[in-house]
From TrEMBL:
This is ABC transporter permease. It comes from Rubrobacter xylanophilus. Pfam families: ABC2_membrane_2 (PF12679). The keyword Membrane applies. The chain crosses the membrane at residues 20-41, 81-103, 124-149, 169-190, 197-217. GO terms for cellular component: plasma membrane. Keywords: Membrane, Transmembrane, Transmembrane helix. GO terms for molecular function: ABC-type transporter activity.
Length: 291
């Protein structure tokens, strides 16, 4: 298993798609999370000549800029984890496996020493490690951006406690890892990178968003949506604060899922995807290809 893990980690590190995907995630934090938000809010703040009902806009914008300061870095940065980060992680997880089917390299791997479960365990562990590094890098980027905003505004710098940083790292990793393992499971199930990515993104961007919007009109649907991974990802990130703007995945519901419950639900989804992926057996045609 250790050899499979080392091989998968080397492969993921050398694959350009890995760097491109996580660069997009980092840019979403820098550009959408901080730069564009800061420019928008400072533009509103500069519109002090506004009249009538918009007279309070500069005051609200000044308060919202304060949400970008280092003391709120965890809330602002984690917004990107449940939004663009979820989509990036799902694609990353799917591509980590689907390439083996597309390039027909899985049979070469399986004809070597490691068994199928060892290969899968190596992939799952390597994906988890890359996601952990990416989550930590995302928080570091958020810290640099919030520090820059604080310097630009001449505001005092106050950071969250070390324990709070560790909690945010764990929550961010869980959000990204859940989506990555969903993508991995879809790739194992469908044996296709394009199909698994397409179905995964349609679910994240359309199906769950539609159900979340309709849940406001039906209590039973609201209970069902409360068990979905996207809703729990958003609510887990919101446990660190709601940030300057609404989450990328949409407005927050009136009642948030408790963070402990959200973490357990996401962990259950991760374990379920890994377990189901491990129990999917090669089809008859795959076995014939190995002979």
């Amino acid at each position: 298993m250790l050899a499979s893990f080392a091989a998968e980690l080397l492969k993921l590190r050398k694959r350009p798609a890995t760097w491109i995907l996580w660069t997009i995630f980092g840019l979403s934090i820098v550009l959408l999370g901080y730069l564009l938000t800061y420019l928008l809010l400072t533009a509103l703040d500069g519109g002090a000549s506004s009249q009538g009902p918009r007279q309070d806009a500069p005051v609200a914008a000044k308060g919202a800029v304060a949400e970008l300061y280092p003391r709120n870095v965890l809330a602002t940065t984690l917004r990107s984890f449940g939004g663009i980060g979820a989509g990036v992680a799902l694609i990353f997880g799917a591509l980590s496996v689907s390439g083996e089917y597309g390039w027909d390299t899985l049979k070469i791997v399986l004809t070597q020493r490691p068994g199928r479960l060892s290969v899968l365990a190596g992939k799952v562990t390597a994906v988890g490690v890359v996601v952990l590094v990416s989550a930590a890098a995302g928080l570091v980027l958020g810290a640099l951006c919030s520090y820059s905003v604080s310097l630009a505004e001449g505001a005092p710098v106050s950071w969250p406690s070390a324990g709070r940083w560790l909690e945010a790292l764990g929550a961010g990793w869980l959000i990204l890892a859940t989506n990555a393992y969903m993508g991995l499971f879809l790739a194992v199930l469908l044996r296709s990178g394009a199909l698994s990515v397409g179905i995964g993104l349609v679910y994240l961007l359309v199906v769950e968003g539609l159900l979340t919007g309709l849940a406001a009109f039906n209590d039973r649907l609201e209970t069902f949506v409360g068990a979905l991974p996207g809703r729990n990802s958003t609510d887990l990130a919101a446990a660190f604060g709601q940030g300057a703007l609404a989450p990328q995945s949409g407005p927050l519901p009136a009642e948030l899922v408790e963070p402990q419950q959200a973490a357990l639900v996401l962990a259950a989804y991760s374990l379920s995807c890994i377990t189901l992926g491990a129990h999917l057996r090669p089809t008859g045609s795959d076995i014939l290809k190995l002979l």
